[in-house]
Amino acid sequence: MSQWRKKTPDETYTVDEVEARLKAELPKWFLEDGWIRRKYKTGGWKGTLMVVNTVGHLAEAAWHHPDLTVSFAFVTVKLMNHAAKGITDKDFALAAKIEEVVMWQPGTVEGSALAGTPDDPRFKYIKYD
After folding, report:
1. 71-85: b or e for each residue (b if 16 or more CB lie within 10 Å)?
2. CA atoms 95, 6, 2, 31: torsion sign
3. Domains in the chain and their CATH numbers?
4. Would the pTM count as exceeding 0.85?
5. What is the DSSP-derived secondary structure letter of residue 5?
6. Per-residue model confidence as pLDDT tens digits over 41-55
């Protein structure tokens, strides 16, 4: 449960509120130039495309669309509510879902039937933090 007061859909957070909430909930994300951002490092082009498609699916399902910077071995995700002209609950919710799905590692869950990718650089598509 979030410690933050639920805001109206178009109510933006102050810079201090954004930074405090990122620190508490999304420590790999940061605020820069009015956007919350996260850079995902990948193992190469195949992994980059997998991350882009994952983010695309989540954004479309949420009807809230980030800006992406795509390169051979990384994807940078930038979120800001264009209509509200700032960071809103939509940005935090989508960032949390992206973080959950992209950084999911089934092999780290004890008792999981899913082993995850082998511990071999040839099969790693994302570089986990």
Report:
1. eeeebebbbbbeebe
2. positive
3. 28-103 (3.30.1360.20)
4. yes
5. P
6. 999 999 999 999 999
Could you give the C-alpha distances from 18 to 4, 24, 30, 45, 112, in angstroms and in order?
Answer: 10, 10, 9, 32, 35
Closest Cα to residue 9, out of 96, 95, 83, 66? 83
Q: Which two tokens stand for residue 121?
A: 């650089």
Q: Nearest 5°: phi and psi at 127?
A: -100, 105
How many beta carbons lie within 10 A of that of residue 129, not counting itself? 9
> Hey, is 4 helix, strand or coil?
coil
Q: Write the pLDDT tens digit of every residue in 49-98.
A: 999 999 999 999 999 999 999 999 999 999 999 999 999 999 999 999 99
